[in-house]
Amino acid sequence: MYSTMQDVPLLVSRLLRHGSTVHGDSPVVTWTGDGARRRSYGETGARCAQLAHALRDELRIQDGDRVATLMWNNAEHLEAYFAVPSMGAVLHTLNLRLPPEQLAWVVNHAADRVVLVNGTLLPLLAPLLPKLGSVEHVVVVGQGDTSVLDGCRPAVHDYEELLADRPTEYPWPHLPETTAAALCYTSGTTGDPKGVVYSHRSIYLHSLHVNTVEAMALSSADLAVPVVPMFHVNAWGLPHAAFLGGVGLLMPDRFLQPGPLADMIEAERPTYAAAVPTIWQGLLGELAARPRDISSLRRVTIGGSACPPSLMREFQERHGVTVEHAWGMTETSPLGSYAHPPRGLTGEEAWPYRVSQGRFPASVEPRLIGPDGTEQPWDGVGTGELEVRGPWIAGAYYGGPDAGPDRPADRFSPDGWLRTGDVGTITADGYLTITDRAKDVIKSGGEWISSVELENHLMAHPGVAEAAVVAVPDEVWGERPLAAVVLTPQDTAAAAGTGTTDRGPAGSTEPGALRSFLAERVPRWQLPERWTTIDEVPKTSVGKFDKKLLRARHAAGELDVVTLDRYDD
Ligand code: AMP
């Protein structure tokens, strides 16, 4: 039997039309460092039409052509987010923190024809241009030193001049919903980046999920700050979801350091924000050093790497902000699981659920595959690599303009599931706990030690600001953990003494004392013998701990390691 429902494609242009009309008054606020620029969704819709006309009529962009952005989170980036896919082209968001040679690699792999670039980022783009064979146009957005572009091959345009006097309506085409809409490359630390191509349909369905009570649950009463960069998995879907629900957007532009972020929150009074843990850790330190009024913030989503429970508690207890933990990846659009506690549980009883990676929505189906290749039970014990499938989960990587989809066997199972590379457990009621990245887990004498668990315990110590634990080779055990700790400033000053930190008395932070602290929390055989104190944990281009670099520094003998005797008491 057939259904009698209309077959209407799910398109980004529908989100744009809806947001800019029904929610025409909703604000897009862009922080300028000491104030803000303001536009409405209605104005944004009109400017999207002007941008689409400029790209089509002047720059001759055709369906399926790639238009890249090298931009901060701001109103103009939002315009590109909607205009480019809605007109039938593909938005390629460039990660401005990638090493320059990788940046050139992804532009060439995607064969981008246009790059929209913030003026402040021209010094990054200009030296690369001779290597970017496909780029025909550079469009400069905002102020910057354009003299660095003198003599470059691509034509140079000013964004505002390009938009000026163009029609404020555009006949957005009826596209098949499976048409490519946006392209984002993974920021993996191994090998070349991999391109993930989102479709109109996957973006639309993902947006519907973002706004449900199972996920971010945003509404037009919210002012949301995507601190997560717009080049990192579509800013976790927030811009698209915002247009669905008329959610106000507060864009931090390039002011992402803790001080300016705190100033912006105090001045503009957002209700919600989203970012990786390192950003929030920095903000907490900033607020302890120089208090600001962040009382407008009710909820923040933390994801992108495991959120230390101590960070969650500090936000709650000191600032009354509820932290919600989420898991996802570039390949999952990114929302996979989201940690709301089960119905009826509050206070201490809710914590074990809130610090987990949470539950999956119906649209994202998980399974755990153990080391022997068998599916593991959902009993909170069975451990395996997480595999997922669903309508906003990648089924392949982009193979390049002249190649078909790329499905490497280590990333996609023979029956088409995405192999996430994350190892964990799932409880009977569906709560996921990621114990490690498959490549970061420490394999000691045939047993697995979770680096994340050791890190979380160490970061709960008042004298420890950051901690990263990595596997190092060991003659007897195969691998053993090396704990690299960053001490809190007060504690560093007190030279591992017993000073007071902003989280309470520091206690001793000598390796032996830190290990005794851990001994009360994890089994003895997991306790690290090797310890090193570092100034900062190295971070990847999207702000996650770069454990590969830490392992390399250890292998090169660059770390000052103290080795304790094996623990026995
Ligand atoms: P990316 O594609 O750069 O967003 O990286 C995705 C990876 O980040 C995942 O495969 C996980 O290893 C890690 N990740 C993301 N969110 C979490 C989380 N809440 N807890 C632990 N790891 C996470």
Automatic annotation (TrEMBL):
Assigned keywords, A-Z: Ligase
CDD domains: ttLC_FACS_AlkK_like
Keyword Ligase: yes
MF terms (GO), sorted A to Z: ligase activity, forming carbon-sulfur bonds
Residue span(s) of domain AMP-binding enzyme C-terminal: 453-544
SUPFAM superfamilies (UniProt xref): Acetyl-CoA synthetase-like
Similarity remark: Belongs to the ATP-dependent AMP-binding enzyme family.
Protein's name according to its UniProt entry: Long-chain fatty acid--CoA ligase
Organism per entry: Streptomyces lonarensis
The organism's taxonomic lineage, starting at the top: Bacteria, Bacillati, Actinomycetota, Actinomycetes, Kitasatosporales
